[in-house]
Amino acid sequence: MEIKFVKSANLKDKVEESKLGFGKYFTDYMFIMDWDVNVGWHDARIVPFGKIELHPASTVLHYGEEIFEGLKAYRTADGTIQLFRPEENAKRMNNSALRMCLPTIPEEDFLEIVKTFVKIEEEWVPHSFGTSLYLRPFTFGDDEHLGVHTCKHVVFMLIASPSGSYYPQGINPVNIMIEDEDVRAVRGGTGYAKCGGNYAASARAGEKAMKKNYVQVLWLDGVERKYIEEVGAMNVMFKINGEIVTPALTGSILPGITRKSCLELLRAKGYKVSERLLSVDELAAACENGTLEEAWGTGTAAVVSPIGKLAYKDKEYIINNNEIGSVTQMLYDTLTGIQWGKVEDTFNWVTKIQ
Ligand SMILES: *Cc1c(COP(=O)(O)O)cnc(C)c1O
Question: Are residue 96 and residue 197 in the same domain, yes or no?
């Protein structure tokens, strides 16, 4: 594909790596392309980062037509810049697009856009272990009238934010509250799509949990409020009596790439792994009788996040003494090792930026 490049007249100063945080700073450029029902994708361009103009009736502002992805560019000790399973992001973005009646992007074009953009912005990939250049591709509907119908004009963009280590003070287990009132998604809905609307729908429960000093919500299924689904913006896994259990992808759960990678790694190492329904009663019983050995969330931002405390109704359970468990630690060390080039990539997960 042809990507036009408009050079910026003045490049920004880089931010000190210890002060990066997450998603606060942006690089010098952004990628944009337009889609029209009659011409398809066109005008692919990398231009100086800046504000965009939207018509006040733009579809995204009224009907939430928006999907996104999240992935990182990592710098290894020898300076190589690499991506982790970006083809999985390309596929998932297209699955999300199909659910929301937004246009798909050929996987090879998505990969070319990401690679070309990262190459141009390579100096923005921070150097220390745990830091990365966070990449945010997103697509939104931009018709300039209020009629409700599938979009005829759509925009795809890619922006990038140099981000600090998720664990600047070392990995600390988090406390999580099981939400039994609000639900995030239902089967047949948009739970498996990475769309902005899912986050809007989950804001209230997140707020409620924060007020009670829990960092995130553990969602139950939307029909019976009985089965464990996922944590905030992460998938969730448990070690119960030696077995690794994670909720099956039933349609209301986001199919995480970190989830998939953890499962492949655990199976390769010979663990017993089950993707199945897990009821909150079974989980509570495992907490009570001591067979819940570990619990952790998985997602691109944190990689893995150990769960130290779990609250359900008026009870609070402590998991593994509120410490990171050995399986969680192994997953963290192996995945971050592969991502930052310290551990051999035997699964062929890494794409180097040449
Ligand atoms: C992105 C996301 C995840 C994690 O997916 P990864 O591909 O592992 O980053 C989990 N749950 C939700 C709701 C998400 O949006």
Answer: no
Residue 18's CATH number: 3.30.470.10
> Is 257 close to ligand 1, i.e. is its CB under 6 Å away?
yes
* pLDDT value for 182: 94
C-beta of 165 in contact with ligand 1 (< 6 A): no
284-304 pLDDT tens trace: 999 999 999 999 999 999 999
Measured from the CA of 301, which atom of ligand 1 is nearest? 9
Q: Dump pLDDT digits (tens) for 166-207.
A: 888 889 999 999 999 999 999 999 999 999 999 999 999 999
Alpha-carbon distance of 159 to 117, in angstroms, equals 9
**Ligand 1 and 92: CB distance under 6 A:** no
Q: Is the pLDDT of residue 279 over 90?
A: yes
Which of 114, 135, 163 lies at the terminal end of a domain, its last residue? 163
Q: Which two tokens stand for residue 44?
A: 């692919």
Q: Are 235 and 246 in contact (CB under 8 A)?
A: yes
| DSSP letter, residue 21 | -
- Greatest alpha-carbon pair distance for the chain in Å reads 64
Whether the CB of 299 sits within 6 Å of ligand 1: yes
Give the count of beta carbons closer than 10 Å to the beta carbon of residue 273.
17
* Percentage with pLDDT > 90 across the chain: 96
Residues 21 and 135 in one domain: yes
Residues 115 and 185 in one domain: no
Number of separate domains in the chain: 2
pLDDT tens digits along 76-105: 999 999 999 999 999 999 999 999 999 999
